[in-house]
Amino acid sequence: MKFKDFFVIGTDTDVGKTYVSTLLYKALRKYNFQYYKPIQSGCFSKDGKLTAPDVDFLTKFVGIDYDDSMVTYTLKEEVSPHLASEMEGTTIEIENVKRHYKDLKKKYSNILVEGAGGLYVPLIRDKFYIYDLIKLFNLPVVLVCGTKVGAINHTMLTLNALDTMGIKLHGLVFNNYKGQFFEDDNIKVILELSKVKNYLIIKNGQKEISNEEIEKFYVLYLSSSNEVIKFEENSVGTLDRSSVYPREIYKKIINLNAKSIILAHNHPSDNITPSKCDI
User: Fold this and answer.
1) What are the residues facing 110 on neighbouring strands?
2) For the chain, which has fewer Cβ within 10 Å, the N-terminal or C-terminal residue?
3) What pLDDT, on the 0 to 100 scale, is given for residue 247?
4) How far apart are CA 142 and CA 200, in angstroms?
5) Is residue 105 flagged as an active site residue?
6) pTM of the predicted protein model
7) CA 271 – CA 195 distance, rounded (Å)
8) Average of pLDDT values for 70-85?
């Protein structure tokens, strides 16, 4: 199966970026996905070393051992990474982050990268920001946004910034939804203004993302008499897309001696309008 890496950011601090990243990782881990937090501030001491709280939360939630390979830089002060590194005398080398990411790519099929806060969070003062890291990795963004008062403004500002920077949007995740009438209206306004068709709503206390909430691509291989030779789940994506490689499908057509195929995929958002990619 083929997947794509993606980068998770939030519209603001404490919007639930780590929680959403954890649910996505939990759903995709069986496909050899790995979680990666390049830089973590606000770390705490445990067994004589600094522990990244986001990695600690994710591993405990999923039920696996703490994994040092999920983070490159651990900083103690609970402030922006650029300031924490200055206070602690730690020099953040982006090449180390880049190398770590490449090493993970050799071991895992795909990487879910979680940033620190929003687009403009500085990693190195006056030099390097979260948006620079996204561009360096050349990854599409999963934007985690809230549903409370203020969500419209925060979300639209971030979406406009992504568009201006030329960073692709992979999908929206409305987190911590509690079923309030104003939340429904906030979501409606954001979707109408942004024209985003692919999104996911995470309810308050939700513990997992079901298979129906992740896009999948299927292929049916048919004989000359239109009988099904083989039905396969060709690829699994994330919120709004799945990667399809025609060459692999063509090979399977030849190997199975199929005379025709049927292609299908779901829309996790329940929006049945075909996207540009569909057409």
Assistant:
1) 33
2) C
3) 78
4) 10
5) no
6) 0.78
7) 12
8) 98
Contact (Cβ atoms closer than 8 angstroms) between residue 154 and residue 17: no
Classify strands 44-46 and 49-51 as parallel, antiparallel or unpaired: antiparallel
Nearest in space to 172 (alpha carbons), one of 92, 81, 238, 115: 238
Q: What is the Cα–Cα distance from 84 to 64, expressed in whole angstroms? A: 28
Tell me the two tokens of residue 234.
Answer: 């060709």
Return the H-helix or E-strand segment holding 87: helix 81-88
Distance CA 149, CA 17 (A): 18
Among 115-119, 177-181, 208-212, which stretch is predicted with the lowest mean pLDDT?
Answer: 208-212
Mean pLDDT of the chain: 90
Lowest mean per-residue pLDDT among 238-242, 263-267, 274-278: 238-242
With a cut of 60, say whether residue 209 has pLDDT above it. yes
DSSP class of 31: G
> d(Cα 77, Cα 93) in Å, to the nearest integer?
18
d(CA 50, CA 245): 42
C-alpha Rg value of the chain to the nearest Å: 20
The Cα–Cα gap between 84 and 79 comes to: 6
Nearest to 153 by CA among 121, 186, 129: 186
Tens digits of residue pLDDT in 212-246: 556 667 888 988 888 888 888 766 544 545 556 68
